[in-house]
Every structure is written in structure tokens, then in C-alpha cells.
Amino acid sequence: MRSEVLQMIEESFFTIAKAAAIILAGIAVGQIIQHYFWRRHLWQKVRQRQKECQKAFRKLDDDLNSLNFDEEALQAICNLPTSELQEGLQSGKYSALEVLAAYQTKALQVNKRLNCVTEPILEAKANAKSLDEHAEKEGLLYGIPVSLKENYQLKGYDCTMGLVNYTGKLFKDDAVLVKVLRKQGAIPFVRTNIPQIMMTYECSNPIYGRTDNPYDATRTPGGSTGGEAALITAGGSIIGFGSDIGGSIRVPSHFCGCYGLKTTPERLSQKGISSLSKGQFIVSGSVGPMARDLDGLVLATKAILCDYMYALDRSIPPLSFRDEIFQSKRPLKIGYYVNDGYLQSVPACQRAVMMAKTALEAQGHTVISFDPPDVPRMWTELYLKTVAGDGGRKFYEAIQKDIPDRCVWNLLFITRVPRWLLWCMKTIIRLVTQDPVHTEGLMSSKGCRSVCEWWQQAEVVEAYKDKFMKKWDDLGLDGVICPVFACVAVPHGYVTEIIGAGTYSMLYNVLNYPAGSLPLTKVTSEDVQQLENYPNRRYFEKNIKKASEGSIGLPVNVQCVCLPFQEELVLRVMKEIETGLKSMGDH
Ligand SMILES: CCCCCC/C=C\CCCCCCCC(=O)NCCO
């Protein structure tokens, strides 16, 4: 009797186990099939989007061929500095259509080499014609073609942020900044490439592909405003616009050698700028201009800080460009550093800061040493814990339902590994990287666990801001100069191996300070030789050193920082450095 019962139990157990196994296998097969069809659907969307872009590029090419402009004359237009181009358009020496054709032609050429443009804005031609038909030449940017990062919303276009799921969702209206640019006479003419989800210093995504650095195709132009930086540096645009929550305007400007300005987050309207960080207000994203020369950067800043923007976005303080600050001759006190206390910058970046220091001194300013407080803690406990406050869930959900690009694989991995597993792996990671800050960074990127912790996070960030500002005020500083990044442009796919190099930029996102990126020099053979003395113990240090081999000739920028809402002073510091260098025969 007992053995019969046991047999029955055994049989039922096997039946249930078999049924469970069949159900589980069925679910697994179902999921694999579903995944297969979903991926197929996504790739179809990619091909569809690529076809549309190719069609737009072909249309533009045909249009340009039919215009029969003289190629040399067009090239001459693209060689003009911003001030001369502006003057030529205002005086009627050049028509808006002619200038547009010049930049369209150049952008197409550059794009063939670098893949920096996602698509042309075909309405630009009608915009230029309409400007030429009106006698009044209104607006500071009258007739100047401008390029826009792909996340700037435009009527009739989508903003994918490199995510396939966002293709084909067309916006009904332009972003406020785009409207302001149009009002100032600018002609948005191309959209530029970005890395998927825009949270890295690379520039690739499955829809538009990878953008190359104009100086070395094996290296990245940086990100996330990488397409802009590459296009502007290679001559395919004169003024562009980007966004920055961790260096995305300043780092690509530095990797490629153009000018960039990250503004105070509240100074410019961000209505109509797509981002996955909307709603995260502790470390806010910013927007700002990028340009081929400093005059262009100043002109673009002046143009957007206008009444029309304040009328379109009432949340922005009506603080127009203060020329008296930009033009002032008051002697300045500037702090400088080449080592932020986490990762020492490479010799080329150090030399650039020292050049800027000498130039400022030559202009009669005082430059003193400045040590930013607690940078390692700022990076892990403040920056990473905030930007990934939700444990990276928003980023993860966006990528996981999509076709993840290589440049976000590591981010995807970090957001997927459970906190407890990461905690268990802590000791091993620390041993491998020889860097407790790196390990803390990984833990911090798991974010906050409760609303209560999130509120505390806001308080901790505020306390750091106070501490930083006190140090600044105690020294009576007007500004600070420092590297933009710990090294110069790195090979494609290498950014996550050196991500700590970004602390030089991320600091000023935590603080909400405006910061400019100013091209100063190129890496020399001596700079590379001096890498011998660069530290080689920690994971990031080893990788920075390795990535810096073969970097001769790459551009090096310097970061110029001032207190919140002092964009005019940032631009003045940049100008003083350039003037100082010119007077010393160095620029
Ligand atoms: C120790 C490793 C921690 C890895 C976690 C990495 C997560 C985030 C890194 C942030 C990198 C910031 C890139 C710049 C982003 C930017 O400015 N985007 C602009 C968006 O408008």
C-alpha cells in the first residue's frame, strides 16, 4: 500500500515536472521567436530610416548640381571666418542661398569621410530663398547656416537619440532654440550624429553608424555632440548647437579641436531638446553653441540670449548678453590646475593649461594654483549616483527594447548586474583595477534606493556646491582654467576604459557652472615622450597612457570656467587667452 502511494507521488511528480519543463521550454522558445521577430522589425525600421536619409542626401546632391555654382567660390565662402561671413551676408556681398550651397556642398564632402551628418534639412533652401527675397537683413545670424545635434526637435523630423524605437515619431514643432535661431536669421541645414542614448563620449548608433575623428579615423570625435564637433572642425559647418550633462559639448570640442560653450542649465531654454534625463534636476543637462572660431561662439551666444527666447520660454531669466562683461578690461584673478586629484591629465593637456596661464599673465591677469575639493567623491557619490539615480533604469529600458550599440554595452551591463552581485564582486574589481574610486563609481551607478535617499542626494550635492563656492570665493577668483579631459581623443570603442578621465568636465555639471572648451595646441612628440612619467598603476591610468600612444598631432583644448550665469565672462577669459597667445606669437 505504502509503495503504491509512493509510486503515485513519484508519477505525479514526474508528470508535473514534465509539464513544467514543457511549459518553460515553450515560454523560452516563444521568447526567442518573439525576440527574433522584434529584432527583425527593428532592423526593418533601421533600413527604412536609412533609405529616407539616403533619399534626402541624393535630393540635396541633385539640387546642388543643378545650381551650377562655381566650386572655388563656394570653397572660398567656407574658408571665411565668422565675422567676415556675417559682414558679407549683411552687406549683400553673398546671398543666403550661395552661402547655404557652399556649406551644403562642404558638409556632403565632409560627411563622406567622417559620417557626421545624420540627414540634411531640405527646407533650408526655401528658408535661404525667402531671406534673399526680403530687403531687410534682420537678425544677428542673418543667412548663416547652422548645424544641429540630432536631439534638437524640428517640425516634421524625429529625434531618435540613436534609438530605433524613436524613428518615425515626427515632432509637430521646432525646439524653442531652433525658433530663436530662425528668428535671428540663421538657417538650420543639417542634423548631426550622436551616440545611442547620448551618455558616453563616443559617437555611434545602429541607425546612423559611427562618426570618425577628423584628425584620425581610428579615433572617436567624442560625444555626445560628436557629429557637430567633427563637422565643424572639418569645415562643413561654421556654427552648431549641442547639449551637455557630463561634457558632451566640451569633450568633443576638445577631441576634434573646435570651440564649445556649455551654458548654465537655466540660462537657455531646453524646451524641445530630447534627452532621457528629463526630470532629473539635481545634475541638470545644458545646451550651448559650438563654433569654428571664437567670434562664432560669441555671436551664437549673443544671438540666442534675446527677448524672443524669453517670450517663448517664460521660465528662463531674461538676462540678455552683457557686452560690458565681455568687453571689460578689469584685471582678472584666475585659478588653474592640471591634476584634479583623481586622474592626472596627460602632458599635452597640462602643457595647454600652462600655455593658457602664460597667455593670461601676458594680458596682465593674475593666475594662481587652485585645487578643486574632493573630486573622486564628487564623481562617485555626487555625479554618478545622480545621473544614474534610478539605477540606470531609464537608460536600460530604452536600450534593452532596442538594438544596443557597442558604445553602450558596458553601460547596459552595469545597469543589469544586480546591486548585491556587484557588492560581492567589489574586492575582485578593486584588486583588478587597483582603484577604490572606480569600484565606488560602479556601486554608485546603481543609484538611490528610495525617495528619501534621493532627497538626501540633493542635499549632499548642494553642500558640495557650497563648499566649492566658498573655496572659490575665499581665493577671490573670477574664473578657473583646467583640462577638459584627462587625455586627448581615444581610439573608437575605448571610452569606457578611460571614463574616469571625464571628471574634469563632469565637475562643472555637478556645480552648474558655465564652461568653455578652447582649442589651444596639438600633441607634440615631446608630449608623447613625457608620457613615460605618467602614472601607470591604476586601471584608468594604464589605459589613458596606452590610448595616448600615437596621439601626435591631435588637438588639445583648455576648459575655462566661471560662476553660474557668467557666460560672458567665460567668453572673455577665452578671448583673453587667445589674444595673449597671439601677442606672444603662439596662435
Ligand atoms: C566606474 C564606472 C562607472 C560607469 C558608469 C557610467 C555612467 C555614466 C557615465 C557618464 C558619462 C557622461 C557622458 C556625457 C554625457 C552628456 O553630456 N550627454 C549630453 C546629453 O544631452
Notes on the protein architecture:
The protein is an alpha/beta fold and 587 residues long. The chain folds into 3 domains: 48-321, Amidase signature (AS) enzymes, CATH 3.90.1300; 329-370 and 475-587, Amidase signature (AS) domain (Amidase signature (AS) enzymes), CATH 3.90.1300.10; 375-473, no CATH class. The protein is 50% helix and 11% strand. It contains 22 helices and 13 strands. It has helices at residues 2-67, 71-78, 82-91, 96-114, 124-133, 176-183, 226-233, 250-256, 294-304, 307-312, 323-327, 347-362, 375-387, 393-400, 409-416, 419-433, 436-444, 451-474, 503-511, 525-529, 539-548, 567-583; strands at 117-120, 145-149, 187-192, 204-205, 209-210, 239-244, 259-262, 286-291, 333-336, 366-369, 479-483, 515-522, 555-561. The protein has an 11-stranded mixed beta sheet, sandwiched between helices. The chain has a two-stranded antiparallel ribbon with strand order 4-5. β4 (204-205) and β5 (209-210) form a beta hairpin. The chain is globular. Bound molecules: the ligand CCCCCC/C=C\CCCCCCCC(=O)NCCO. The site of ligand L644U5YH has 24 residues, from β6, α13, α15 and α17.
